[in-house]
Design brief:
7-stranded mixed beta sheet; Rossmann fold; 2 domains; binds 6-O-phosphono-beta-D-fructofuranose; 17% strand; alpha/beta
Length: 364
Amino acid sequence: MTQKIGILTSGGDTPGLNAAIRGVGKACMSRYGMQIIGFRDGFRGLMENRTMVLDSDTLAGILTLGGTILGTSRDKPHKMPINGKVVDMTETIVANYHANKLDCLVCLGGGGTMKNALRLKQAGLNIVTLPKTIDNDVALTETTFGFDTALGIATDAIDRLHSTAHSHHRIIVVEIMGHRAGWLALGAGIAGGADVILIPEIPYDVHLVAEAIKRRKQTGKPFSIVAVAEGAISQEEFAAQQAAAARKKEKKAKDPEPELVYAERTLKLARQLQLLTGLEARPTILGHLQRGGTPSAADRLLATRLGTAAADLIESRNYGFMIAARGETSLPVPLEEVAGQVKTVPPDHPWVESARSVRTNFGD
Ligand code: F6P
């Protein structure tokens, strides 16, 4: 009996998703003679049974396309917003899986998708996942597709910001995506030669950042590039967050101070650095530019490798795994081991050490 496979993309879009859809689809169909259908807009499309035909025509010409031809959403099966209410739609999703006579559902997503995929596995579905995110923060895989493309875009942005910072003798604070992990800001910061890199894993002291910028000024470099991850926080804010978490644990919490949202933190940081250094500071929020457009060659390759490996695993009727990237090959990792984990930057990671060796400041 040939198998019938469903595929969906969930979470923020990422360059390389279409390359992965193509990799899974072509290998499933042409190599193994399976049938494949797409579900639109993530788990919401599966819940609403909105499908898309995936055949050799729809899969042709999508390797280089950004975004996802299936559409995506951040909706979760067990917390689906419907008419102003949040409803557990797991049963409907399970029913639609069976109504479509699926043998396996392939979910392309990041950390949130891995958790949702595990829940569906526990509800009895055969699931295989692929790790995508520009944040590179999915556990137990060396990398995720989308990261390399975003790294290139963010590095290019830093290169361009350098010449304007230099010409105006300014500080440019450039916010780079990554709310839980600083891989993208760290990688682009190193590749672009940022003078300061701030990441969530290393809470910073703004005074130490300002001192580093002033030292550069004293040595004839009155401009600086500060690459800051969305989720980077000051040591003060970190301490406040820890205290709030402890209070919450003790159930003493009343009305916690609302957290600053990412761009607000970056604007505040630029203002503080201007005041502390006497240099003009300008913020640049790269935002969704980092997720748009055509995937890099490395992401196309990775997405194709992982997508075709998913087809091989499904052919052998092994389900319940994420296909992780390991060196030149791939490895199925049980969803139980991946879900709920975040791959953050170890503060002594070799990239951090290298950056410190070229005198990059981390505000610590
Ligand atoms: O999916 C990861 C990510 O790119 C994060 O870096 C960023 O915080 C988030 O998505 C933004 O998501 P949205 O597009 O839903 O605002």
